Amino acid sequence: MLRGSLREKTSLPMKRHLGPHRIGEKPLIAGVLTDIDVVSVSPDRLAPVDVIELRVDMFNSLDPGHIADIFTRARELFGKPLLATVRHTSEGGQRSIDDRVSLYRVVAPLSEAVDVEIFSEETMRSVSTLVADTPTVLIGSYHNFEATPDEDFLERVIGKGRQLGADIVKVAVMARSREDVVRLLLLAARHRGQGIIALSMGDEGLVSRVVGPLFGSLLTYGYISQPSAPGQMSAAELSDILGRLKIR
Q1: CB of 35 within 8 A of CB of 70?
Q2: Catalytic entry in 80, 143, 191, 246
Q3: Catalytic site residue 143?
Q4: Which residue in the list 15, 21, 88, 170 is annotated as catalytic?
Q5: 186-202 b/e (C-beta count within 10 Å ≥ 16 → b)
Q6: Is position 17 annotated as part of the catalytic site?
Q7: Which tens digits make up the pLDDT trace of 15-51?
Q8: What are the residue ranges spanned by the domains of the chain?
Q9: pLDDT tens per residue, range 125-145
């Protein structure tokens, strides 16, 4: 049975740009930084990175003034589009935060993209409204650090993310076998051109970070100082491999 019309299957995200990058024109590399990294990492280490993901839940301080200062400094120092993430503890966040929406209100105007978990439905709806009339791209994400769910569940996740207003849906799941990786890559292929990020985590899933773009995954993640997810390689290594394989 067809999953939607031909128009739906070939449509790009409504918001077509992430900073200077046209979404889907080439696979983008996101480098993950904390507030400590922003003040300590030299700009040359960000050369392989297209987008900087600032993990607010990993910041030493959640004072709104401090957060705004870090985002402003990151933009001035590195000159890269910013992706703001205030991750919930249920999906890998580093600390419990009672009012994440208030923090998204701080960072959304300072960012080209924001990431919110699809199953944090109230937060997702609030942030979707917050960025609806702005150029800021909304990434609706789902993380599972235990397993790769079956196809039907993942399809429902994607549908729910789009229903809640996500421009791009991110699915990051733990691979326990090569079959898990293949299943995720085929999911990406089915949603190619619709705004999908698909990553298999863990050692088994490492290959997905390299070949995912061939199946339609728009963004892959590398670390600058320390990994923020299992099986993550450095942004420099990722950029080198993607370049040598002519994937970008």
Answers
A1: yes
A2: 143
A3: yes
A4: 170
A5: ebbebbbebbbbbbbbb
A6: no
A7: 889 999 999 999 999 999 999 999 999 999 999 999 9
A8: 17-240
A9: 999 999 999 999 999 999 999
Is the pLDDT at 7 greater than 90? The verdict is no
Answer whether 0.85 is exceeded by the pTM. Answer: yes
Overall CATH class of domain 17-240? alpha beta
- 127 in Cβ contact with 133 (< 8 Å): no
